[in-house]
Amino acid sequence: MAAIENNLGKQAEQDHVIEILRDDCPENPREWDNGCVMLCEHRRASLGDEQATEKIANIIRRHPKYDAATDEEFNDDLETPNDKYVDISSPDGMTAMLDLLEIPWLPVYLYGHGGMTINTTGFSCRWDSGQAGIIVIDPFEYGGSDPEDFLRGNVETYDQFLTGDVYSVRIFKKCPCCGVVGEEVVACHGFYGDDFENNGVRDFVCDEEGETEAAFRAAVAGANRITRNV
Length: 230
Description:
alpha+beta; 2 domains; four-stranded antiparallel beta sheet; 6 helices; 27% helix
């Protein structure tokens, strides 16, 4: 699904060589404080947040609209059958209650064929793809104005992690006389996605390390990107 181009991003500029290459040990973004919870189910892989079912159920129970009357109306005390019973520990029950309480959420779809990639809109292949879970706003942590866009961004970042679309930047000394590349001057890791103009790579190379715009653009042109086939 994701084939790696062989050309390593290297650019000699004055007395430095700049490399942009894949980060071989990126952080799992689902371990960050995200302001949302991702619940995914997969037969062979552990995806999404740890203890996601419990976290989403807790979000529901803490919501101001989920009061004693709501609890009584939609729960089942096991003695008196309740036709309105909603099991918030099940995906269908969760989404029904999230809709009732107007807590924003989106579906998470997965395509798995020689790797895994996810989105919130689905994939055309009906054999190797389908809905794998949901992602839910935590209204007690999120304070923005566009929750669905925020959720899509979280899914995109997690997809970049799953597909290896995360990068490191390394800057080496170069002998001005013979051009031999020497010791590493500085390195920075954890740039998610290949929009190097806006994902922090340019800021690091040009603003923090003082390299030229030409050096940055030349390094980007030869960066070790992934190639997506879906």
